[in-house]
Amino acid sequence: MAKLLNDGMSSQVHISNSNRHVRLCKQTKGTEVLVDAMTPKISTLKEKYAATLGQKENRDAAYDSLVFNDAVLDDQIRSTSDIAKQYDRENPGRPVHKLLFPDGGYTSVLRSSYAKKANTAEEIIERIKSLGEEHPLASQIIHLTESIAKVRSSITALQQANTNVRTAIANEEVAQANLRQQYEFNYLDAIKMFGKTFANRLFPQTVSKKKIEEDVTIIDA
């Protein structure tokens, strides 16, 4: 018997089964109304499914950008630590590394979340500023500032990308529901037009694995 669509099926299955239904209808006279009703629903779901894939790709790109910019910020934090340590070695009476990294190093900073790391880096900038404009570490301010800005921009872009994916998925689910509804309507209309036995021929059938293997064997033979 015909297998109706359900919300647990993917868009690919929705589209595949619906296309098969349309192809079967086109082999039968008097089914134009069924084809005309189903075709726009298939087209809409294809469009929404493609939009979801596109937004997911955009999200992946936004994430990759964030990871890259975060790594650059990591490098700037490490560089700042190295310069501070070098300064302390050359100026043992005026240590600054402990001032910039109260916890003793940058490891905990690098392991923190993207947003928290950016905030901590900004705190490091403020501590460098307190050392004065002529201090050797002052040159790190511009590098840290640029890296922080890029990370924060990437975070915002990723958040927007996630929102866009959720919206696209919601639109895709609506298109799926509309297609499922029309698929069922077509099945009921086909029964009215041709009777249940013939109507079942116009829809993909629920076939057992054993039956499929038997059919393949017959074709191969």
- CATH-defined topology: Ferritin
Question: What best-fitting shape do the alpha-carbon axes yield?
Answer: rod-shaped
Number of helices: 8
CATH class: Mainly Alpha
Helix content: over 70%
Instruction: Provide the residue-averaged pLDDT.
Output: 92
At CATH's second level, what is the architecture?
Up-down Bundle
Q: What Rg is obtained from the alpha carbons, in whole angstroms?
A: 31 Å
Number of strands: 0
Structural class: mainly alpha
What does the largest sheet look like?
A: none
Strand content: under 5%
SSE pattern:
HHHHHHHH
Q: Uncertain segments of ≥5 residues (pLDDT<50)?
A: 215-221
Determine the N-to-C terminus distance: 27 Å
Number of domains: 1
Give the SSE map.
Elements: H1 11-25, H2 32-90, H3 97-100, H4 107-110, H5 114-129, H6 140-194, H7 196-200, H8 209-220
Helix pairs in contact: 1-2, 2-6, 5-6
Task: Explain what you see.
The chain is mainly alpha-helical and 221 residues long. It has one domain: Up-down Bundle (Ferritin). The protein has helices spanning 11-25, 32-90, 97-100, 107-110, 114-129, 140-194, 196-200, 209-220. It is rod-shaped and about 95 Å long.
Keywords summarizing the entry:
about 220 residues, mainly alpha, Ferritin, about 75% helix, rod-shaped, disordered C terminus
Q: What is this structure, in a nutshell?
A:
The protein has about 220 residues and is mainly α.
